[in-house]
Design a protein that fits this description.
The protein is of the alpha+beta class and 181 residues long. It folds into two domains: 94 residues, 2-Layer Sandwich (Double Stranded RNA Binding Domain), CATH 3.30.160.100; 74 residues, Sigma 54 modulation/S30EA ribosomal protein, C-terminal domain (SHC Adaptor Protein). Helices cover 25% and strands 39% of the residues. The strands form three sheets. Strands 1-2-3-4 form a four-stranded mixed beta sheet. A four-stranded mixed beta sheet has the order 7-8-9-10. A two-stranded antiparallel ribbon has the order 5-6. Helix 1 runs parallel beside helix 2. The radius of gyration is 20 Å and the shape is globular. 19% of the residues are buried.
Length: 181
């Protein structure tokens, strides 16, 4: 497990870094693949201590954060959240065996706001991303969206092999967009 610890608005502290590097590998019991962890520790207004972590393993990204009045308590809270999320993820994976070899590639494009105005004839592209869309069930897509803390997720339905979109509604529920043939 590769661990990268970043300090923001505070002095670099070796005891805190060692504490994170000692405790974080314990969550690896839920993931077999090589894991890369990015931990950001910050202090705001000298009283709010915040610990944020992003774990990236093959196929998943999990984020957790905790904010308290003590840095060690924030780290422990963040690790507890990671532990719960990974345990829930592993339980769901046990129930669902993913289909391999049917991944699709999708491209995402971001346009500038000014290019959408009537003054410009053509929108200008500021960013393009390309990513794999793996086959999964709707339940797994909702879980993955929650783990990534995203508002929507594009995925391939494992039963119909169609590209679908699951999104978070304003009322807290989820919506599903299924294409018609």
């Amino acid at each position: 497990m590769r661990i990268n610890v970043t300090f923001r608005h505070m002095e670099t502290s070796e005891p805190v870094r060692n504490y994170v590097e000692e405790k974080l590998p314990k969550v690896k019991k839920y993931i077999e693949e090589p894991v890369e962890a990015q931990v950001v520790l910050s202090v705001e207004k000298k009283i709010r201590h915040k610990a944020e972590a992003t774990l990236a393993a093959k196929g998943i990204i999990i984020k957790a954060s905790e904010e308290t009045s003590d840095m060690y308590a924030a780290i422990d809270g963040m690790l507890d959240k990671l532990d719960r999320q990974l345990k829930r993820y592993k339980d769901k994976i046990k129930k669902h065996k993913p289909l391999s070899g049917r991944e699709r590639r999708v491209e995402k494009t971001v346009y500038t706001a000014e290019s959408i105005d009537e003054a410009h004839a053509e929108p200008s592209i500021i960013k393009t991303d390309s990513f794999q869309v793996k086959p999964m069930s709707v339940d797994e897509a909702v879980m993955q969206m929650d783990l990534l803390e995203k508002e929507f997720l594009v995925f391939t339905d494992d039963s119909s092999e169609e590209i679908n979109v699951v999104y978070r509604r304003k009322d807290g529920n989820y919506g599903l967009i299924v294409p018609r043939s």
